[in-house]
Amino acid sequence: PPVVTAWAKQFPDMKKVVQFVEPYGPWPGMAKAHVIGLKKAGVQPLKDVIVPRDAITFGPLVVKALGQKPDGIIFAAQSEKVAKIIKELKNRGWKDMGKLLIFNSADDAPLYTTGGSALNGVMIYNYINPNIDSPRWDAFKKAYAKDHKGMSPPSLSTHYYDAVYMIKEAIEKTGVTGNPKKLAEERKKIADYCRNVKNFHGLMFTWSMKDGIPTNKPLFLFKIENGKKILVKEIRPE
After folding, report:
1. 157-174 and 183-195 are packed helices; what angle lies between their axes, rounded to 10 degrees?
2. List of residues 6+ apart from 119 with CB closer than 8 A
3. What pLDDT, in 10s, does the model give residues 54-89?
4. Distance CA 165, CA 167 (A)
5. Are 102 and 82 in contact (CB under 8 A)?
């Protein structure tokens, strides 16, 4: 929610926002979190436009969204679909590119290869700021590129990397033994430790959790220009 609030507050004239939501995994839940952020900014969330998993044409979905007369649009769908929807919006006259916000899971190669210059000016949020300068992050980027044909780490890579080391820390600090007879008990120990970990030294930041929710881990709002992300704002939970 905080990153959506920050995005919405950049545009005082933005009063109504519609979301394109693909019913996959946690994405509908993320869309609900977006609604919390919109309401905190005083913006009215309109009825979601559902993006079918097998959708290949997007004109009718765009017509449905524009029919609600939104001032802004949020995308919670697969990266290539988001790019195609944005191109369809531009073809139908959408001009306020900054009032389009893409969620972090779509920050993937197909978004940029399909969207191209049509993405210029569009906003996107992520948990990674690729421009952070630290020895550990620099080493990770270099190793990732070596193993993935020069690609940059995608949006959730640092989450998964940190998760492994958080579990490692939990095992070491809770005295987990690996005894098969204590499997359920020790799994709970690991989970409970991670849900309230304090001052965890992650790949990019030192951060803490309270009841499974990061309390000080930042989000980043970017503007896309020529296939690159330009930092607009760093947002930390209140």
Report:
1. 120
2. 83, 86, 111, 112, 224, 227
3. 999 999 999 999 999 999 999 999 999 999 999 999
4. 5
5. yes
Rounded CA-CA distance 175/185 in Å is 12
CA distance 200 to 166: 7
Residues 6 or more apart whose Cβ sits within 8 Å of residue 203: 136, 137, 140, 158, 161, 162
Q: What is the C-alpha to C-alpha distance for residues 189 and 191, in angstroms, rounded to an integer?
A: 6
Tracing tokens 């900014």 back to the chain, one arrives at 41
Give the containing element (helix H, strand E) for 44.
strand 44-45
Report phi then psi at 61, rounded to 5. Answer: -70, -40
CA–CA distance, 122 with 180 (Å, rounded to integer): 51
pTM: 0.85
Beta bridge partners of 135: none
Helix (H) or strand (E) holding 102: strand 100-102
The first and second tokens of residue 45, run together, are 């969330």
